[in-house]
């Protein structure tokens, strides 16, 4: 088979996969979540197998344990989180009005510090930002419906996801052997090397980065609640869960928390600085300790590429696209690096008489 035919086959398979995802996007959510859950839990099932559990019992024990933990967290925290979300949405216009009043009170000092023209520009920018934030909050319920987060969807995911995860975990080894059996024998070693790189990158995304995300959410929610910040639990959770987009979680949580702190604690500047310090301290811990330890060099995705993947796949596939965006970006980065490496080894890059170092003989 010529290289041209091989490329056409792979491109055709990719187009067919994208088309299938687009056609069935409305029913894909439980299958995508179930597959991610199975991938996440497979190492635990393998460990139980090493302890002489058979595959079925190991899968059952792990899945039931996870379901028990999730349900316990749900019944303990979800009612409180729901109340805080509703309260924050209702209180947000008041917070914006209070911040504008504080800014008006500080306007003489700001005019003296920045000058009248720059102070007016700052006030205009803050007013525009406040209007955009309020408009975004007002559209949240409609957007959740548009991307498929309805009661029926939640029930479907709740029921189907554990079933999908169970059967995928049960037959995980068989699926892996089946895929390996379909690989062309001549290129099997090279393809397996690519698949190992993809697995490493996916593990970094789902297990490593997912662990960082959950730790971020737990720390922010706990710290903001302990210092008594209004709606600190939900603000901290949102800031932590948005951390999968580089700097978005930090910027969102920092801005919202400091804004609430200004209204709540003014004129106590120490409390406002404490709220800001929580985010600055944890950003340092995350960047220098958590991320290198849990994720390491498993993924190397440019933040711009990450944001593009989220927006593009979210626009095309809705909520399913948002779930697939980060893993797909990780896979694409592996394939792009492989393609660049092969290109630099080819005669197209080296020339017909070029050596490995690029020299021409």
TrEMBL record:
Any single biological process term in GO: transmembrane transport
Cellular component annotations (GO), alphabetically ordered: plasma membrane
Subcellular location: Cell membrane
A UniProt-annotated Pfam family: AI-2E_transport
Membrane topology: Multi-pass membrane protein
Chain segments annotated as transmembrane: 7-23, 29-45, 57-82, 144-170, 210-231, 237-262, 269-285, 305-336
Signal peptide location: none
Keyword Cell membrane: yes
UniProt keyword terms in alphabetical order: Cell membrane, Membrane, Transmembrane, Transmembrane helix, Transport
Family: Belongs to the autoinducer-2 exporter (AI-2E) (TC 2.A.86) family.
Name of the featured protein: Predicted PurR-regulated permease PerM
Species the sequence originates in: Devosia psychrophila
Lineage start: Bacteria, Pseudomonadati, Pseudomonadota, Alphaproteobacteria, Hyphomicrobiales
């Amino acid at each position: 088979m010529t290289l041209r035919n091989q490329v056409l086959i792979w491109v055709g398979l990719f187009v067919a996969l994208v088309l299938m995802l687009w056609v069935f996007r409305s029913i894909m959510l439980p299958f995508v979540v179930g597959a991610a859950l199975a991938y996440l839990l497979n190492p635990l099932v393998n460990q139980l197998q090493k302890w002489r559990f058979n595959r079925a019992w190991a899968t059952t024990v792990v899945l039931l344990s996870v379901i028990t933990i999730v349900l316990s967290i749900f019944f303990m925290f979800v009612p409180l989180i729901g109340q805080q979300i509703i309260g924050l949405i209702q209180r947000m216009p008041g917070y914006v009005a209070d911040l504008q009043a504080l800014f008006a009170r500080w306007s003489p000092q700001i005019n003296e510090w920045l000058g009248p023209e720059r102070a007016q520009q700052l006030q205009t920018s803050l007013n525009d930002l406040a209007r955009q934030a309020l408009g975004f909050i007002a559209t949240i319920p409609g957007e959740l419906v548009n991307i498929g987060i309805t009661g029926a969807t939640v029930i479907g995911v709740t029921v189907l996801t554990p079933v999908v995860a169970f059967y995928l975990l049960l037959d995980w080894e068989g699926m892996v052997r089946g895929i390996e059996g379909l690989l062309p024998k001549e290129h099997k070693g090279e393809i397996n090397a690519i698949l190992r790189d993809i697995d490493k990158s996916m593990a970094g995304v789902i297990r490593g980065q997912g662990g960082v995300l959950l730790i971020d959410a737990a720390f922010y929610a706990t710290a903001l609640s302990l210092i008594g910040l209004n709606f600190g639990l939900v603000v901290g959770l949102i800031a932590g869960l948005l951390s999968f987009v580089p700097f978005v979680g930090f910027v969102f949580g920092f801005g919202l928390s400091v804004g609430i702190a200004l209204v709540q604690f003014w004129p106590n500047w120490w409390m406002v600085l404490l709220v800001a310090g929580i985010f600055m301290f944890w950003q340092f811990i995350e960047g220098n300790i958590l991320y290198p330890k849990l994720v390491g060099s498993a993924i190397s995705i440019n933040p711009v590429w990450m944001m593009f993947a989220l927006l593009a796949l979210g626009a095309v596939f809705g909520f399913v696209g948002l779930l697939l965006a980060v893993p797909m970006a990780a896979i694409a980065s592996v394939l792009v690096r492989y393609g660049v490496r092969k290109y630099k080894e080819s005669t197209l890059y080296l020339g017909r008489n070029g050596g490995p170092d690029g020299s021409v003989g």
